[in-house]
Structure formats: structure tokens, C-alpha cells
Amino acid sequence: MATTLAEAIASVEGRFGTHVLARGAAVERRSAERRIQTGTSLDAMTPVLASGAPLAFIGPGSTGVTTLAHHAVAGAQRDGGTVLWVDPSATFDPLVALRAGVDLARLVVVRAHTRDDVLLAARAALRSDGFRLAVVDIGLRFAAVQRVGIDDLAPLLAIVRSSPAALLVVSETRPVRVAIPTLAFARVAWERRFGRTTGWVSSVGERAVFHFGALGRELHDVGTRGELLEQTG
Amino acid sequence: MKAFLALVVPEAAPRGRVLAALCAMLPRVGVADDGAFVCDLRGTERLLGAPARVARNAIAACGAAGAGIAPGAGIGTTPFVARIAASQVPAGTVCEIAAGGERAFLDVLPLDVLPLQPRLIDELALLGIRRIGEFLALPRGAVSDRFGQAAAIAYGLASGEAIEDVRGAVPRRRIRAKRMWDAPVDSRERLVFALRGAADELSEALRHDGLAALRIRLVLERDDLLPLRLERSLLPPSGESSAIVRSLRWGLEELPALGAVISASLEITAVEPARGRQIGLFAPDGAHAEEAIAVTQFLRTRLGPNAVLQPRVVDADARLPERVAEWEEVVR
Known about the structure:
The complex is a heterodimer of chains A (about 230) and B (about 325). Chain A is of the alpha/beta class. Chain A is globular. In chain A, helix 5 (about 115-125) runs parallel beside helix 6. Chain A has helices spanning about 1-15, 25-35, 65-80, 95-100, 115-125, 155-160, 225-230; strands spanning about 55-60, 85, 105-110, 135-140, 165-170, 180-195, 195-205, 210-215, 220-225. With about 325 residues, chain B is an alpha+beta fold. Chain B has twelve helices and eleven strands. In chain B, helix 1 packs across helix 3 (about 50-65), helix 8 packs antiparallel against helix 9 (about 150-160) and helix 10 (about 190-210) runs antiparallel to helix 11 (about 240-255). The longest helix of chain B has 22 residues, at about 190-210. Residues about 280-285 of chain B have low confidence and may be disordered. The interface of A and B includes residues 92, 107, 117, 132 and 162 of A. Strand 3 (about 105-110) of chain A pairs antiparallel with strand 10 of chain B, so a sheet runs across the interface.
């Protein structure tokens, strides 16, 4: 029995590589190592951002999708990783990213203008060992020079499963034809002072609440729904 | 200790096997212009013993590798003296020229042991110079002026002023792996996945020898089609399995059709010594920085200028947004 199992393992490893099989404990340990911590309430939510897995931040403009994506980038870089940001709409703001804690020296921004270029860049990052996270920021619909939709990223979902990097998609619209783990962002309320908009409150997946300040003010992590219920009774 | 060992083997000897045997036992082995094997023994006395002992061991190793051949061995303070000594002794014996005894050994030898043209030797003979001692009695500057650079080089070798360089000549070892499949592989993804084991094997062999792959060759045998040959260069050279797989993947993606692949032969066709890499002290993923650079180079090639960029904040308080940051090409 043991010999047969050993032969089967040797056959699989001989054909598909030495790291293709692992014990359950090792898999559990690796799954913890693969997670990318954003340092916010998102870390307590599912789905998580982790190597070898895709995740989408879906929400309209001014709901904090990009800001939390910056925090995810900072989290990936905290472990020493490099991040590739695919920016077809050329809307990446270095100053906002810097304020969110992004190390710009370990960030490569690719301005891909077509669907094929977006796929090429993301695919190359996911297939190499050089990146910890690949972000595809599809951007707002009105800002897109050439329409690249979240459904166009379907080929990446198969690639990311065997990748040491995570894939984060930032989009305004939900996918229709692909199944991708999603965190939906929705604005709960605007914050106004003296007749001017000074910020807003957004919920993520209806489970975490964030307060965003306008004009580059810092993100305030209000907490998850469970934490809020505990505080307010 | 300043010692060189030279071994002169017969013409008919299997030189490749002799060279491999010498490389296996001595750290630096080269092949001189006249075909003699020259070994640099400087700094090896504590590890390997006295040069005479090393010479006897080398003769035995050559005999084992070359089916009973017995080279003549010479030991000298320069490769030239060692080579001449080896050529003067009977096969299977050792001639050691002690430090300070080089002139006494060389002076009585005829000029034809020096790397001189026969025409020049005849010219010197007309002047009454037939032995090395007589040649070395000439003023060095006059030799250079009258007989040219070749004579000056020979003069320097004989006088010990010029020392030939022993270049390490490690025999080429084929680093390759082959995979065969019962069911034909017809998709790129499956082929790349199946080649990972072969790449791991090559990477292990490279790591063992301290080498990095510079060029790789993949030959795919296909059902009902001619074999497909794919040559790739790895820049920067790498011994990592992931770099080999990545290069193969990019190469395969450029092929319009793959066909039904029944076997694959992967070979490293050019190598260079593996270089050390600077790894960030607090960055566990810093070891993969070269991978990231390779990907950005690839993207720069495919997407052109102004596509693969790195931002830099120059003035966070600038009044105009366009003056806040600058964008630079990651790869120029």
C-alpha cells in the first residue's frame, strides 16, 4: 500500500514538479503565509487577498475602492514584495498612493492601452516570481480610453491559481461572465461641513465601514459590523 | 610556493578524458598552445601535498583516464619551464626544476624549444647563437629591436620575466533533461507545466556546478510533424528553475501552433559562472528582484516606451497637480 502511494507520489512529482504535492499542515501554513494583510478591517473579512487567488474591489467612484487598493499594495510591499499596477485609464495618482503608505520605488505602473496589453502585463507579472501582487485598475467607465471590462480578464483567473502573486481587480462594474471573489463597496453617507463635502462613509461588503476624508485626508477604519455592534450595544 | 605542473601526453591519447581527470583532481588546469596540460599549483601544497607528489598522482590519474597512457611531467616556477621540463623527460617520470635552477636547466637547451619561427632560428644560428643561454646573453632591448616582438616574447619566457597565463579550461558538460509522454501534450499550458520537472532538474545541476544558464534549447518531438526547436537566451543569466520556465513560456507563446508533443529535450547550451546576488536584509522577497526586472524588460520590449513606468513624488505641496510627481521609465 505504502509502496503504491510512494510510487504514485513519485510519478506525479516526476511529471508535474517537486512542489506540486504537500501535506495538509504545510498547506495550512503556506495559506497563512500567502495572505496579504492590508492593516484594515478587510483582513477580517472573506474573501481574502492572498497569493494565488483573485479578488475584485467593485464600487462606483468615491467609495474608496482605489484607496483600499493602495492599502493592499502597501501591505504586499510590507513583506518586501514588488507590485505591478496595470493602469489602462492612466489615472494612478502617485501622491495619494504615497499617502496610503505605498513604496513607489517598489511599484511598477504599466499604462496598457488595449485589452491585449492589459492581459499581457498582468499575465507576465502573475507568471513570474518577481511580484507579490498584480493590480488591474480598470478605472471609471467614463475615463476609460478604450473599454477594458472586468469580464475581459477571464484568462487571468486560470493563471493566478498557480501564481505566487495575488490578483486584485479594481472595477466600477460587477463581472457578468466570470466568477471572481468580490468585495462590493457602497457609499453610505456624504459628510458635509459648512455646505461643502468633506468626506464620505462607505461600507465594504456590508460588513466593514470606512470613513474617507476628501482632499487627501486620511482613511479612518471605523471597524466591522460586529465590532460596531459590540461598541454601540 | 610558486609551482606549475606540466604534463605532455602522447598525440594518440584521449585528451578530453585526460583533461576531465585533471580537472577533477586539481583546481586550475589549462591547455598550452603546444597541447601540453599545465596546472597551477600555487597555494595548494597544504591541501594536496608537495608538487612532486601531485605530479605522480596526476600521472596515475591520466593513466586511469586514458587507458594506460603515461605522460611525462615537469615542475617549474613558470609554466614555460614546467612544459620544457615535461617534454625532456621519459614518459611516466617527473622532472622538477628547483627555484633558481631555471637558467642552468634552460641554458644548454637548443633554440627550437622556444616559440620561434624556424627562419629566425636559422638567422640566429648564422650569428652563432644556437642555445638558449647564448640567446639570453643578448641585451633584451637589442633582441626586440633586431628580431621583433615574437623574439622578445620568447626571450621573456626563457628569462622568466614573462609568465604564461594558465586559463582554466573546464571540459564542457552537457546539462540536459528529457521528458516523454504517453499521451501527446497539445496545449501550451500543459506543456509548460510538464516541463517544470525538467527545469528543476537542470536548475539543480547548474546549482551543483555554480553555473547560471545563458542559453537554453528546447527540442519538441511531435506526432506527424517535424521536430520543433526553440532557442532562448536568459538575460540576466540565471540558474533558477522559474527563470528557465518563464523564458520557455514566453518562447512557446510566440509559436503559432504547437502540435501534439510526445517528448521534449531541454538542454543548457551556454553557461557562465553564477554571480552572487544582493538580497535585501529585511525583504524576504528581495531575492526575486531580478525576476521583476526581467518582467519589466519584457514588457518594455512588447509595449514600447512610456508604458512601463515608475512614479516619483517630487513636490507634494505643488500648486499644479502635474508638478507633484514625475514618471520615469523603469527600463531605458
